[in-house]
Amino acid sequence: MSFQCTNPDFYVRSADDAETFAVRRDALCTSEVFRDMFTCCGDSDETLDLHESADSLAALLTLLHHPPQPPTQFKRDEFNLIPKVWNDTKTVIPLPLLPMLFELADKYALPSDSVIGVLAEHLLAHAPEAPLTVFTFALKQGLQNVASKTTQYLQPMANYSLGEVALIPVEAYHRVIQLQDIRVKTMRQYLLSEDLFPHGYGECPSHLREATQLWHTKRMSLAVKLETLTDVAGEMENVAYQEPVQNCVLCRKACIAAVEMLRYKCRKIYRTVDKLPS
Ligand SMILES: [Zn+2]
């Protein structure tokens, strides 16, 4: 990480790597630790030595001079997809850098709203692609909100190895197990009770038996392999592309209606641990 300051009035040096950085004193004062240091040491012009590597120091100075902005987000409501908000990856701080930045922010007491809160938004932006890493790290940092929101992306916990979950406190682990259990049970219940022609509604006289059988076979095979992240409606939608449903107006209409009803119901199921009854 490189660091440049355009109008410096002070110097800090990495004592570890003997590298000096020109900085702005008022930018350093965003940190409570530097503020206290300057208060007790006065306006000395001497270079300040810090026991940090040059890389860490450059990262710290960047945080101080150019506080991070939240990731740029865009909504994708029009596709009715989850998550509804997506982050522009070009504006997200890479995940491997975040632990060091949080550590520096803690160590130098950077403002919690403008720095730590924004870093938390960057951490959350990685939840869809690296849920377990984000979840574990958020718990360690005490970022309950990030940890909680991340639970919607976690694989079934049984899929992870012991080594991967070992760092999760048992209470948090148990909440995720409860969440996933409720999700699977509720999805299965909705799936098995959603009929193609509910109470004969929209019934197709030509394919009643065949289409009903097709729907039933598909939902039974899905019910036994349901997992917390299964897209129930998306899976059942495949029925619309099979005969006799595909080429029959009535069957197809009934199938799409049933799939949409499933999608609506499944979307209402808790996705994060904070929604669970305590
Ligand atoms: Zn039909």
Describe the protein's architecture and organization.
The strands form 2 sheets. The chain has a 3-stranded mixed sheet with strand order 2-1-3. It is built from 12 helices and 5 strands. It is 49% helix and 7% strand. Helix 3 (54-65) crosses helix 4 (98-107) and helix 6 (131-141) runs antiparallel to helix 7. The protein has 278 residues and is mostly helical. It folds into 3 domains: 10-65, no CATH class; 73-168, no CATH class; 178-267, no CATH class. Bound molecules: zinc ion (ZN). Zinc ion binds next to helix 12.
Which labels suit this protein?
single chain; mainly alpha; 278 residues; three-stranded mixed β-sheet; 3 domains; binds zinc ion
Kindly summarize this structure in a few lines.
With 278 residues, the chain is mainly α. 49% of the residues lie in helices and 7% in strands.
